[in-house]
Amino acid sequence: MSALLTAEDVTTALADVKDPEIRRPITELNMVKSVDVAADGRVTVEVYLTVAGCPLRDTITRDVSAAVMALDGSTSVDVVLDVMSAEQRADLSRQLRGGAPEREIPFVKPGSLTRVYAVASGKGGVGKSSVTANLAAAMAADGVSVGLVDADIYGHSIPRMFGIEGSQPTVVEKMIMPVPAHGVKVISTEMFKPDRDTPVAWRGPMLHRALQQFLTDVYWGDLDVLLLDLPPGTGDVAISLAQLLPNAEILVVTTPQLAAAEVAERAGSIAIQTHQQVAGVIENMSYLPCPHCGDEHRLEVFGSGGGQRVADGLSRRLGTAVPLLGEIALDTRLREGGDAGQPLVLTEADAPGAQAMRDIARRLSHRQRGLAGMSLSLSPAG
Ligand SMILES: Nc1ncnc2c1ncn2[C@@H]1O[C@H](COP(=O)(O)OP(=O)(O)OP(=O)(O)O)[C@@H](O)[C@H]1O
């Protein structure tokens, strides 16, 4: 019965529509400008976009329309888009920061419950970015709130692996909204280059600033897990990261090859200098499941034992047990999925490599976060 539908009913329904980037109800973010319900059930909703040319305007229009059309009594819906004023954006930015001052890293604040993992490798090309992307997608599919920083400044491949190449984040009053993809909030250096083909030639201080900006100026919201894809080797980024996020735990990705393992062990042992913890080692490209007999018969294309060797070596050097978290099979579908923006854990969840990554993702997201670098707010007993 159209006569019964009121503007309040519509506003209540709009409380279920979330801004796709900020992931909070549009009503709470003061994005609903007006609601009008005509006697014949025609509904007009005016919505404020945070910025003109918002890349997700179609998604917002669709979600608002769907919420209104699901109501008894609505006969049609017209979504009219407007853009917030500078003052409204400043209010929103203040609201999102929850009153916290600018330039603060939320993940190092005492009481932060976000587990931070920096994914490192010794050599390039061992699949560090592929593994990071799949771990993030697997966590998100499990309902974990996950953010991903592509800090691989020179070889940023995360946007391609998530199908968001060329996407630009929305910026609201100096606050950067991560780009959502497969349920993961993604920020990459690629998004800040003037054009995609320009190589990034940033040196130490620039890199440090970029990383700092990803941590202070991006609106991450409440994250369970933050993953950072580091460049290969032990470089400026790893050192900067340790300064900015001393509580980040390191994940080392290597291949079974012993030569790669030596380099990976060196990359992991940076944790000794930076007083960070190593959460574990992941061996990628471990084996090729035999095309004839399946996963039981493993062809060891790149040798064997590298991952365990790195885990044992780091355990010795650090004096704490560093586990081998899993062995990921070679799978051409992993590469194809990476090129097509579709992580293997989502498209072929039962493939041996996908299963291994889903297990590792579960293990990492359910772990208690490490205490390294965390203020325990304790004072010594008298
Ligand atoms: N388990 C796997 N099976 C098949 N192909 C894989 C596997 N892991 C990674 N690859 C492929 O290997 C190549 C290198 O992977 P990726 O870019 O993830 O490595 P990386 O260590 O992040 O490299 P870099 O840090 O040098 O950019 C990619 O083409 C990727 O699709």
From TrEMBL:
Identify the keywords attached in UniProt to this record, alphabetized. Answer: ATP-binding, Hydrolase, Iron, Iron-sulfur, Metal-binding, Nucleotide-binding
GO: which molecular function terms? 4 iron, 4 sulfur cluster binding; ATP binding; ATP hydrolysis activity; ATP-dependent FeS chaperone activity; metal ion binding
Q: Which Pfam families match?
A: FeS_assembly_P, ParA
Does the keyword Protein biosynthesis feature in the UniProt annotation?
no
Q: How does it assemble?
A: Homodimer.
Question: Into which family does the record put it?
Answer: In the N-terminal section; belongs to the MIP18 family.
User: Start and end of every MIP18 family-like domain?
Assistant: 8-79
Binding residues annotated for ATP, in chain numbering: G122, K123, G124, G125, V126, G127, K128, S129
Stated name of the protein: Iron-sulfur cluster carrier protein
Known function: Binds and transfers iron-sulfur (Fe-S) clusters to target apoproteins. Can hydrolyze ATP.
Return the InterPro entries for the record. FSCA_dom_sf, MIP18-like, Mrp-like_CS, Mrp/NBP35_ATP-bd, NUBPL-like, P-loop_NTPase, YlxH/NBP35
Among CDD domains, the record links this protein to: Mrp_NBP35
Q: Tell me the PROSITE patterns matching this sequence.
A: MRP
Work out whether the entry's keyword set contains Metal-binding: yes
Give the UniProt record's GO annotations in the biological process aspect: iron-sulfur cluster assembly
